[in-house]
Amino acid sequence: MKIKANCLPAVPPKLALSIIFISSLCCINSWNGSFVFDDSPAILNNPDVSLSALSPSSSSSSSTKTLIKILKNLVKNDFWGNKLTHKQSHRSYRPFTVLTFIFQRWLRGSLNPIDFHIFNLILHTSACMLFYHLLRKLLDKSARHLAFYIATLFAVHPIHCEAVAGIVGRADILCAIFVWLSVLFYSRCIYEKNLIILIKNLLMCILCITYAMLCKEIGITAIGICYAYDLIIVNKKNIYDIILILKKESIKNIIEKNKYKCLVRIVLFITCGLLLAIRFNLMGYSAPSFQPVDNPSSFINNIFMRYINYQYIWSLNLWLLICPQWLSFDWSMGCVPIINSFELRLLPVILLWIIFGVFFIKYFLTKKIYRDTRYVSLGLCMLIIPFLPASNLFFTVGFVLAERTLYLPSAGYCFIVVMGLQKLSRRFYRSRMPLIMYTVLVITWFTRSWVRSDQWKNEHSLFRSGLSVCPLNAKVHYNVAKNAADSGNMTLAEAEYLEALRLNPQYAQAMNNLGNLLNNQKRYQEAKDLLKKAVGLQPDFAAAWMNLGIVLAALKQFEESKRCYETSLSHRRHCPDCHYNLGLLYLEQKNYTRALEAWTETLRQDTKHRRAWINTIRILDDMGKQEKALREGEKATKLLPDDATIRLNIANILGKLERFEKAEAEFKRAAALEPTNPTIFTNLGVLYHRWNKLDKAKEMYTKALEINPNAQSAKNNMKKLENLIRKKNLKGL
Prior knowledge:
The protein is mainly α. It has 35 helices and no strands. Helix 6 runs antiparallel to helix 7, helix 24 (524-537) packs antiparallel against helix 25 (542-554) and helix 29 (610-622) runs antiparallel to helix 30 (626-639). The longest helix has 26 residues, at 113-138. The protein is elongated. It starts with 12 loop residues before the first helix and ends with a helix.
């Protein structure tokens, strides 16, 4: 390693790549994590991802049909599996990212979070390596050694933890990879003299920009980065130079002097317009609608104060890049209080504009353009341009601050930091202090990333970490409550839901979940009041309408319950659970035909809805339609071969029809699936009882009582059996 007096020491490429590789593993703690936070709606509950449940060994015809359906859905659905034109859609169109989720599910045959986390780690490492390669192409020979320092700093930045450790952050990593590929191809294109090779590189550049945009919307900003690179690095110009050139020459003369290069720029500009037009067309030319809780600043009526709040959020984003100590999975709902008047929080806004004003004047309006000036200018462009879609300047976004959106802009920030250190090393050429500062920064950020990625392993640690950063964020308390409820800690769940509602009294989702919790505790009136308030605040809240219907059914208010289910379905037609609960309502009213119709619709929408299958089989049996029940049972076992309850119901019907051998086989299959279920052995005992195999019946009742000594049905049947055996013995005497 040769140390020059006037710059940071050069590192051989092979050693540089090894260090970058090791540095990129700072988030490796998350490799065995679970699905957390947004992973659930984007992957676990995404109908497009669940379509890929067929294993690679499935028949070719079924695989082809599934593939066609997946491709159709990818074109018309958003990132979360909803129709892109639906009024509740966030309009996030990322089909290539979803395709990676689908492929992984198809390849494994199930959703294994470890696979997804490992793939994210591989992608981050690849992104770091590619960024290093890109920098070596963009920088001059004399500055090429800086690529190592920039790429290493990028690899360890803690702001990346959400993108790497959170699986949905894959969209940002993939987008960054294709953005950098597009800049690489543009670099080749702009220097190429052979027209055919130039066209090939241009097409590859356009293709990569398209892929980047299909991974995440900010991919379109690759065009802006290409233009910035072209202007600043290739042509060594800035805004001041452009103004002078336009004063001296006409646009026509400029184009004639650089025909091919101008053609490349024009084609790229047209591509940008076409991609945006296609994107808006897919959205139905309508913007997404958000709630005030998602992005409170966007709902401020005073336009001046609205933009002041936007600028304060920009300063927070910059601070997270500078000092990524306070990181949270969510920054909405009071985490960043709104600025309503002149206060101290305006100082960061003033400081932000002073910093960018100085940078703009020094690096964009200067007459003399030095090499370092150009690199800092490019770094600023790489920082600002990818951040623009998240800035609220062009359209409202559905978040206050999202750390994963800084994955791509952080590359520009790392570029600027290293250029600053390079300048310091030149000024203090006899001191190793700049290199020591850099080393300390890398180690500090690596350690912070290591700790933060560990917090992303499960929802309990993730949500708890959010409380320390955003204690006033109602959504953080909501998620802590939801996690506590899933873990069975109902006391903590209720307390946290109440705290969320105290912080945000109009939080409809918290009311809905707390209403569910109270309903499970049979506190029906309290649940009813909460759910009524939730649908009053959000009339199109389909889940709350359904849950209100469940509570009203428990209170025997059947007509009101039915109206609630119908209202829920009017807002969300595809809801198998709502149809299922409507079927339960009809069952309660002894309207078996309507109950069957409701469950048929449930199974049409979700072929693996086990409760609907179980109830369908049972009700057909109760209606005396045993043969039809068996046919439905056969369908169910093909779809859910490992469900013991379905097999138990089939076995009971076969027993009633005195098909003892078939019934016995089904009971044994059910027992093999659930060997600790006393009901299976009790019912098998009843079968042997009817079949007059009394010894075997006694054996099964005994086994059921061994599993559960308090199983009343097994006790009663054992007494009957013992009485029967006693009578037979007396007759024999």
